[in-house]
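Rotation project, supervised by the postdoc (A.L.). Task for the rotation student: set up a whole-complex structure prediction and record inputs and outputs verbatim in this book. Inputs entered:
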Amino acid sequence: MDRRRFLQHAAKWSLSLPLLLHWPFSFNSCGPFAEAAPATLPLATVGVSKGKDYPALVRQVISLIGGMKSFVKPGAKVVIKPNISFDRTPDLGATTHPLVVRTLAELALEAGASQVKIFDRTCNEARRSYNNSGVLPAIEAMDNSKVRCEYIDRRKFVTTPIPQGKSLKSWDIYQDALEADCYINVPVAKQHGLAGLTLGIKNNMGILGGNRGQLHRQLNQNLADLASLIRPTLTVIDATRILLRNGPSGGRLKDVKVSDTVLASTDPVAADAFATMLFDLAPHQIGSTVAAADMGLGTMDLNRIRRIERI
Amino acid sequence: MKITTPPTLWRRLSQLLFFITFMVLFIHTDYQGQDQLSGAVNLIFRIDPLVTLAATLATRTFIALLIPAFFLLLASLLLGRWFCGWVCPMGTLLDGCRPLFGQRKASLPAALPKMRYVLLLIILVGACFGLPLVGFFDPFAILVRGLTMALYPAFGLAMENLFTFTYQQGPAWLNMVSEPIYHFLRDTVLPFDQKVFTLALPAIAMLLAVFLLEFVQRRFFCRNICPLGALLGLAARCAPWRVANRQPECHACGQCSNLCRSGAIDQRSQVNSERCILCLDCLSRCPNQHFAFGRLKSQPLPVAEGLSRRAFVGTSLAGIATPFLFAVRPFKRQPEPALIRPPGALAEDQFLGRCVRCGECMQVCIGNALHPALTEAGFEGLFTPRLIPRIGYCEYQCTLCGQVCPTGAIRRLPVPEKQTTVIGIAHFDRNRCLPFAKGVPCIVCEEHCPVSPKAIRFREVATHNEQGQTVLVKQPYMVDDLCIGCGICENKCPLPGRSAIVVTSAGESRHQKLLPSDGYG
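Outputs recorded:
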């Protein structure tokens, strides 16, 4: 998060909420304070769309939450971060659907983005993952020099302090992600042994360098700490297919449920909380969602998430 | 006066062309965006009659992959050792580096050229009786190995370091220039990933030795060592087209015999066709233009540099006896657990007999998982491929190693068969594994396990952590029947140093399967 956005956020939160609720506000008192607030007041908005036409779904869901123009200013540098970590085809539900990624890139261009970059630090071999996920071919087919699906360049990892981090104080983070004017996080919703589910907050791991396995010792808090630094402008969760078992790598069609859903929010915690319900789980069952909400990074209280649906 | 192109120009062009082809194929020996490779440097081994002969003798099977070698043999039966002078990339490199070594006249024992026939004999007899040696002397094996394991990765590293420096320290105007160059290089000649190899230094030392011998004599390796050259030289005896001195009674000024890079012209200025590599220098440089290429009469020659019957029998006997000495070592009965062969590798004896130790499987391996073995497969298994999961794992959907193996030592497997081929089985070291040893959550291994359903699963267990508190952690366990030994778990285990989950070759499936008839199996 850059300084300008930090100041903007700080100003917005610290001015609007106390005014609204007549209470002095700080980040740390967010937890107990939220309980005191009336349960009906929406703090976040999640757009949800269902249907078979995935590009149309994405367009719909973005327009539900205000349209891409409100997130991408003309000339902006946009980063789209899908989850293409595994060497799996789209039908196996382990990677973000190429049509979702591609449509977001198109929307960003239509809103006037000067540059759209798409990348992920993969678990399996990068070229195989980029190709077989269908994302690289889909982006190359756009044939637009402003949109680039790039492999990770090892030179671009920058050791970055995480000022709000409780357990994770600093880590190597990909420069392009840090410098983006608009960062769109596009995870695929799937089961994950340790984390329970991998959604938006977990998907941020794809811009980390170093030995990421070490983060698993306190995964939830580490992810929340990371989320305090990486604040996506937009979280778009691809739940067109969700992987129910054997995640996050998957590999069996039997484990995939076609749910034809895409949801989007500017609040990363709300997006994750909402996507959790697609798995018949409650938001508080996912540790990273709870940890991030505790740090005041967003709301996981379903009563306070305004959902706009079009099905 | 008519200006004619000197014949050596054609030879040089041909050398250049074939060398470029070789290098393009070499760089092309990599994942190309599809599961199937469109072309690879294995072609050069498939036209190699020495490799063909040795692998065929060793396995006593007809290897369809190696059919192209018969065409080279046939061509040599007609034209002699033209391959050595016009095509061989090793020869081209040696010729190209000539200016580095300078001219010097060393007096060497006259019997030295016999060495290549001794080597040829011991390689072929050894192959027959179970001692695979061809990979240590075949020129392409030495060259491709040196390139794959040392030169190419080192070149990649040097470039990456250079452009990292310009990227991180250089001013913006420099990066405007250097970054496009770097991207261009990355798209064309640089390796995609920075690889490392266990035997980088021995591999380069062997290649370097061939070059250092140039100080002793021009084309020393080709004249005295190369068993492939020896084999082609035997074929050259029958060649009707040859270079010869048309003048039986030449003045013998001796220029030609000093000039000849392969030592094929004797003091009487007559050409030895077992040695001649058709470089055609003598054609253009003889002041009297006595030399010509065509259907010419040859001088009578002793076979194989006149290798004596005693040497022949002695060498053969050594070739027969040594394999039995090699066979009485314990790992011949119980395979070394750390020796994990790539998926599709034949049963060990057949594998060693076919493997040329060219390192192509290591060049193509996208995970940098395959490494040259030192002594894990015995001395004779030096440079054969071995999977070291801690350095790199075997990518679940990838079948590239079997596609590039020139002799079918690693079979070409369809993806579904590859995914059920067991190359080893992983097991946990609970003394190190975090959820067991420290009560700390981890299960990174379970996350990455690519088989579905997973071979690594977990159960939630109440245990004590280092502070003595009771905690609920997920502890992993193995389902042996599902594990194929790909090693991604060992590779991704986040512990520093040794992994808490280790793959050994015990349980590999290749020893239970029947041998296929050829490399396309």
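Student's summary: Chain B is about 45% helix and 10% strand.
Supervisor addendum: The beta strands of chain B are 241-245, 291-295, 370-372, 385-387, 425-428, 456-464, 470-478, 501-504.
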